[in-house]
Amino acid sequence: MVSSSSNPNPLLQVNLFSRFFHSWLSSLINKSHKQGTLHLDDLYDLPDHLESTISIDKLEANWFDEIKRCPQNPSLVRATLRTAGWRYMLLSLLLIPLVLRLSTDAMNKFSSGEITNLLANDANKVELLHYYLNYLWIAPLQTLAVIFILWSYVKYITFIIIGYTLFLLFIQPLFSRLFLYLRAEVLKVTDERVKIMSEIIRSMRIIKMYCWESAFERKVCRIRTREMIKTTVFMMCHCIETILSQSYLSVIFLMIYGTMWSLNIKFDTRSFTLLYVLVNYTRQSCITYFNFAIRDVLNYMAAQKRIRVCF
User: Fold this and answer.
1) What does UniProt give as GO cellular component (predicted)?
2) Residue 111 dihedral angles phi and psi, to the nearest 5°
3) 246-264 per-position pLDDT tens digit
4) Number of folded domains in the chain?
5) 139 and 256 in one domain?
6) CATH code of residue 300
7) Burial label, 33 (beta-carbon count in 10 A; 0-12, 13-18, 19+)
8) Which residue of 147, 198, 245, 309 has the fewest CB atoms within a 10 Å radius of its CB?
9) Residue 110, domain member (yes or no)
10) Which residue in 279, 292, 272 sits closest to 143, CA to CA?
């Protein structure tokens, strides 16, 4: 693809090596060093395939095609994959302009507050999906490699690490589903609060004329109280999950020390250093990032259902 602009992007013509190491930016960096700054005219033009208008049109066409294929249960996930493919991280940029193309029926069905809440919460969940998604397959492979290395040094002590790690991995999907349920409950109340606040603002003159301020104030306070209670429960569950994740190293070494002490197994500095590095690595990739990946996937599935209803 060749750009017809006055400052074409060199990314369109560079080789694989330059793409991988980003060496195609060297000329821009040198210009910045010589000038002391960069001006807007110095920047390269955006390639055509990255322009939002083209991507939005493609997503919209794929969504309408998905509706024709599966009118009873269209999937925004399939439309997304056909549109962006590996560039699904751009989807959040597509959803916001796409909302401006809602049908008249959808605009009448949903209030402006609900649409605002959709953009503020659900579109953000789509954007966050790609951050840790690859750890769904990276983490198990890394865990197997760590187990192999540990077995060659500490033998049966490895089963302690495996057991506690598997325990956390098994309860993480349960926590994620619980978070998904609690978040859905919070969003329901948030939608209700945003909707009534929008109605109050639109009908402010009528409310003032009939002196309904106190009644609406009590109603908003009740909704806000419900929202805060559900949010508090959600955050408490999140704290429990965080404690289990952050205490992983301490619990592992406590069980290892206790087992080795009871069995009179020598535990030297070399073994401690190796265990600490590998177990900490397992906590980072397998416990933390793998958990984030599961959470983001479930949040995305919930978000795409809410977004799909609007279209």
Assistant:
1) membrane
2) -80, 165
3) 888 888 888 888 887 887 8
4) 2
5) yes
6) 1.20.1560.10
7) exposed
8) 309
9) no
10) 279
Nearest to 276 by CA among 258, 238, 236, 249: 249
**Domain assignment present for 13:** yes
**Contact predicate 51/17, CB 8 Å:** no
Same domain, 167 and 257: yes
Whether residue 80 is contained in a domain is answered as no
pLDDT tens string 28-69: 888 888 888 888 888 888 777 667 777 777 777 887 888 888
Distance CA 171, CA 191 (A): 30
Task: Give the whole-number percent of the chain exceeding pLDDT 90.
Answer: 2
According to DSSP, residue 6 is labeled S
Range of the domain at 146: 123-310
For residue 305, which amino acid is it?
K
Name the burial class of residue 208, with classes exposed (0-12), middle (13-18) and buried (19+) by CB atoms within 10 angstroms of its CB. Answer: exposed
3-state SS, residue 39: coil
